[in-house]
Every structure is written in C-alpha cells, then in structure tokens.
Specification:
The chain is 78% helix and 0% strand. It has 112 residues and is mainly α.
C-alpha cells in the first residue's frame, strides 16, 4: 500500500500542476466559457500545498530509497518480452511494407 501511494502521489501532483498550467496557458475557443476562476485557484492551491507537504515531510528521499532490484527471473522475463516486442514490431512493419508494395504493383498492372 505504501509503495503504490508513493508512486501515485507524485503523479497526481504532476497532473494537478499540469492542469493548473494548461488552464492559464491557452485561450478558450470562441463561444466556450472559461472554467470558473474559483476552480483554478483551488487546484493551484492544492498543488502548491501538497507539494510543500511532501518536501517538508522529507518523503522524497524515502521514495527514492524504495527502489528494489528485480530478481534474475523477472529480469530475464523482461528481456524476453522486450525482444519479442521488437521482433513483432519489425514483423508488422515488414508485412505492411510488403502489402503496400504489392498493392502498388497490382495498380501498375505488373502482376498481370
């Protein structure tokens, strides 16, 4: 539980900060009303206070120390999955390339 909240909390803070920044960075489209100013102020205040709470509590060094080395079986499985993903991606790309070239040849009537 502590590990998931340690990962989730910075993501939520980043999302709140991004929401606060994007609402002030872009102009609304024509005919669209801007969100209420109170909502923006509440989100900005929440992002600032939660950020200072994390920094003040000293939770960042604790979150950095939580990284755990994966065991050898997990590392091997990760490498196998990564290699399989690369091979499948290249295979799909090659199949798409072959199909597109075959369609061009048929349109040029080279195969008749």
């Amino acid at each position: 539980m502590a590990r998931s909240s340690a990962v989730l909390l910075p993501l939520v803070l980043a999302a709140l900060a991004l929401l606060a920044v994007t609402q002030t960075a872009f102009l609304p489209a024509a005919g669209v009303q801007a969100p209420p100013k109170q909502l923006r102020e509440v989100l900005q205040a929440a992002a600032v206070t939660s950020g200072t709470a994390i920094l003040a509590s000293g939770a960042l060094p604790a979150m950095a120390a939580m990284e755990v080395e994966p065991d050898s079986a997990e590392a091997y499985n990760q490498k196998v999955l990564n290699a399989a993903a690369w091979c499948l991606t290249l295979a799909v790309f090659l199949v798409g390339l072959i199909i597109s070239q075959a369609r061009k040849l048929v349109e040029n009537k080279w195969l008749n």
